[in-house]
Design brief:
There is one protein chain. The protein is α/β, with parallel strands linked by helices and 331 residues long. The protein folds into three domains: 56 residues, no CATH class; 175 residues, 3-Layer(aba) Sandwich (Rossmann fold), CATH 3.40.50.300; 73 residues, Beta-grasp domain (Ubiquitin-like (UB roll), Roll). Helices cover 34% and strands 22% of the residues. The chain is built from ten helices and twelve strands. The strands form two sheets. Strands 1, 2, 3, 4, 5, 6 and 7 form a seven-stranded mixed beta sheet that branches. A five-stranded mixed beta sheet has the order 9-8-12-10-11, sandwiched between helices. Bound molecules: guanosine-5'-diphosphate (GDP) and magnesium ion. The site of magnesium ion has 4 residues, from helix 4.
């Protein structure tokens, strides 16, 4: 049976031969898949292209693109990785300092921060990784910065409330990133697809309106809301005075969409200091795998403690866990 590939498909296939950048290769492969006639004779070819796509995505998730010899990979640590970005001097480093107690370089001149750097923020009994990114403007945007944003679990976009230009700069920055297939969203909502081609990288994002101490009347905050309220939750904070930071910490954790589960040995107290951090929706089986690869295989049943609702009842391996559950695994 003939595959009957279209000229458009063959042309895309030709482009793939010379394409080097992973993102470009991904886009071409996805185009090929879309262009391929779907019938018996192309089944094998479809599977091949799909295989290449998933392999490439896997690779891209682990390596930020290399350009001019600059490449940064920040290994994920803790309950999740949150990228902190925005225009120069908006107070990104100061915000991180206030949230983590760490000591990133803070300066009243632009471009104090030149390399990405990870810091750990404590939230209750877990730690969340915040990545300080050198400033971005619509004009100054390195491809590795874009890759780091794509990989992160969530984003904080920081703007300066004292800067009347902030909304316009931010609008241009968002547009530029959208061209690079990064879309900041309030939630995992599914936007009507106004993207031609492969789906974009959608990042859960808070718009941090920093330096609220310099906008006491809230005028600039009002303008920011007019511009962006539909797209983001806008959180006014003051990194120097500390206003709004406790709330922000909580909301960052909630955004990561993870749960904490405490393991417990029979007859012992649960280990509250060392929660297992799992994706929301994880089951007892997932928990067992997180504890030890072998446990997942050998798991017979588990017992659950959850408020007054569960007080040690038996649950099966496909039971869905919730934040702060206590779980006793039996092999
Ligand atoms: N008044 C005020 N100044 C701030 C605040 N956050 C940062 N700054 C100042 O803004 C300048 C830039 O801060 P920095 O964190 O280095 O900005 P970055 O370039 O975005 O990392 C510094 O002089 C900070 O002291 C804030 O909440 N209120
Ligand atoms: Mg900085």
């Amino acid at each position: 049976m003939a595959a009957n590939l279209t000229p458009q498909y063959l042309e895309a296939e030709k482009r793939l031969k010379t394409a080097k950048a992973p993102q470009e290769r991904l886009e071409i492969l996805q185009e090929m898949l879309a262009l391929m006639p779907k019938h018996k004779a192309t089944e094998k070819l479809q599977a091949q292209v799909k295989g290449k796509i998933s392999k490439l995505k896997e690779e891209m998730a682990h390596t930020p693109s290399v350009k001019h010899g600059v490449s940064y990979l920040i290994p994920k640590q803790g309950a999740g990785q949150v990228i902190v970005l925005g225009p120069p001097n908006s107070g990104k480093s100061m915000l991180i300092k206030a949230l983590t107690g760490a000591d990133p370089e803070v300066g009243d001149y632009p471009f104090t921060t030149r390399h990405p750097a990870p810091y750990m923020m404590r939230f209750e009994n877990v730690r969340v990784q915040l990545v300080d990114l050198p400033p971005m403007t619509p004009e100054i945007m390195e491809s590795w910065q874009v890759e780091l944003i794509k990989i992160a679990d969530a984003a904080l976009v920081v703007v300066d409330l004292a800067d009347a230009e902030a909304p316009t700069i931010l609008e241009a920055l968002i547009a530029k990133l959208k061209d690079k297939r990064v879309e900041f969203v309030r939630d995992d909502y599914f936007a009507p697809d106004d993207f031609p081609g492969p789906p974009p990288f959608r990042k859960r994002t808070f718009l941090i309106a920093n330096k609220s101490d310099l906008d006491p009347g809230g005028e600039n905050l009002g303008t920011l809301k007019l511009f962006f309220e539909n797209q983001f939750a806008i959180l006014p904070v003051s990194s120097t005075a500390g206003d709004g930071l406790e709330d922000l910490r909580k909301r960052i954790f909630a955004y990561l969409d993870v749960i904490r589960v405490y393991s417990k040995a029979p007859g012992k107290k649960p280990e509250h200091d060392a929660p297992f951090v799992l994706k929301r929706g994880s089951t007892v089986h997932d928990m067992a795998r997180a504890v030890h690869m072998d446990f997942a295989e050998k798991l017979a049943y588990a017992r659950l403690w959850r408020g007054v609702e569960y007080t040690g009842q038996m649950i099966t391996r496909d039971f869905a866990l919730e934040d702060e559950d206590v779980c006793e695994l039996h092999l």
